[in-house]
Amino acid sequence: MRAISLLLDVLVVLLFAVVGRASHSEGLSVLGVLGVAWPFGAGMLGGWLVAAGLAQVPMSRVRAGVLVWLATVAGGMSIRALTGQGSAPAFVVVAALTLGLGVLGWRLVLRWVRQLGSDDRPTSRPSA
User: Fold this and answer.
1) Is residue 86 included in any domain, yes or no?
2) Considering its fold, how many domains does the chain have in total?
3) 95-118 pLDDT, tens per residue?
4) Structural domain contains residue 50
5) Chain mean pLDDT for the chain
6) Domain extent for 38
7) What is the DSSP string of 61-117?
8) Which of 67, 69, 79, 127 could form a disulfide with 103 if both were Cys (CB 3.0 to 4.6 A apart)?
């Protein structure tokens, strides 16, 4: 499941870059999308490494997602600042909200679906 989780997080970062470039009428070339995505991808991988290092600590998938989300935003913005890319306050807010929705969203949906599947309530009312 870790590989699928990592893949979903990578897809969130790529989708963030595609939507961001499209909303600003920038081209959707592979290099353009990767140029936006790579700082956040690097931050995300840093978050994954920290989460893996904390494997001994009991942590739900959602809690691990919070760690990955914060590392994605903090790492991505730090790298963007260090490489001369923009990190305007409005962009930081939009990136944090959008990436949070993606990185945490799929985890919350998965948890909800699993809870629905493990519901032990009877499906019909017993007749009295």
Assistant:
1) yes
2) 1
3) 999 999 999 999 999 999 988 887
4) yes
5) 89
6) 2-113
7) HHHHHHHHHHHHHHHHHHHHHHTT----HHHHHHHHHHHHHHHHHHHHHHHHHHHHH
8) 69
Residue with tokens 């600042």: 81
Predicted confidence (pLDDT) per residue in 13-41, tens digit: 999 999 999 998 888 899 999 999 999 99
Dig out the tokens for 119 from the structure: 């519901």
As a whole number of angstroms, the distance between CA 103 and CA 16 comes to: 11
Record the tokens describing residue 26, joined without a space.
Answer: 């920038």
Residue whose token pair is 């930081």: 92
Q: What per-residue confidence (pLDDT) applies to 86?
A: 83
Cα distances (Å, whole numbers) of residue 66 to 33, 75, 96, 98: 24, 14, 11, 13
Whose tokens are 């699993």? That residue is 114
Return all residues near 76 (Cβ < 8 A) that are at least 6 apart.
39, 40, 41, 42, 43, 44, 95, 99
Residue type, 101: L
Q: Is residue 118 part of a domain?
A: no
